[in-house]
């Protein structure tokens, strides 16, 4: 029942405005005319005569809710230059990295952007450039943001590059106090497989995903940070509870045997780090990056070496990872889709998507929706392939819409 002004609605039936209750003597007078003075308890000394209760008013059930509308994709007015990563700011605006080296602040209405000065110098050769961006868990008090990027070498490493992570304070549209807190080692030649995503754990340590720079074997070499996930504190120091990979291992390693992890997200229930990885020819993977685990690259993969006939017979190392290496949760074979940025859905706009994992795809030009049963991928489907866009990153807006960055420079909003 809801009261609007002085009109009461019961279901869909409207009643007249309520009148004030009658005075007691008026009640007695009315009853006396019908049943005698005894109805008012006086004169004859008899007992009260009960008054019949009014007949109940039927209440009409509310109509069933209208079926939810379909998800629609709308290109926003802002235009970007090879966007790579994004992070929401408390005021509703977004930080977006652009691979060629610039950082922009996109307005909350997604209609315009402003350049942010002070970003580090990057090597934008090949797949390199300004990559991911993440906000400090205590951004409201520290103002810190973190950037991953391809850092050009100098001196003896001139002509080479490696993934680095810098911390800076965001002041309006400027970065101040830019400090490098991590450098991949060693820097190498070439422009491929940098990774790299930044994800804060629940304990406020920072996960950094790192590609093996198209070199393969370094992913198994624990003396290097190529093809690894590392975990550092916010100032670049190392957590005391990182796993041990034995004598000669470089400090900071969390997991090894990765190829090119270009997507990562923290599971909202378990707090585990989930990553997406590019395979070679087929063999793209979704993994949970667990402490001390080895994911097998380049010794085993469900994909094939480039140049081999497409199929299952050429799967590297026979394909099956277990028991020596961690088995992927799901793979794409025989053709790669090149999975990129990813996000778990916990918004209100699409309740039917609660707990789903969304993964952008580059070669596959789609947004993949994975339904989960615990740590098992129960099903998956490719969405929005008709957009014909390489989807580089995905995030969930405060209102529950999905935001997608495309290599062509679009910011797409998925809403209903």
Give the SSE layout:
Layout: E1 2-4, E2 7-10, E3 13-14, H1 24-35, E4 72-75, E5 83-88, E6 94-98, E7 102-106, E8 113-116, E9 130-135, H2 139-142, E10 144-152, E11 161-171, E12 174-183, E13 195-200, E14 206-210, E15 228-232, E16 253-256, E17 261-266, E18 273-277, E19 284-288, E20 330-332, E21 339-344, E22 357-361, E23 366-373, E24 376-383, E25 391-396, E26 402-406, E27 411-415
Explain the overall architecture.
The protein is mainly β and 416 residues long. Helices cover 4% and strands 36% of the residues. Strands 4-27-26-25 form a four-stranded antiparallel β-sheet, with no helix packed on it.
What are the key terms here?
416 residues, mainly beta, four-stranded antiparallel beta sheet, 2 helices, disordered N terminus
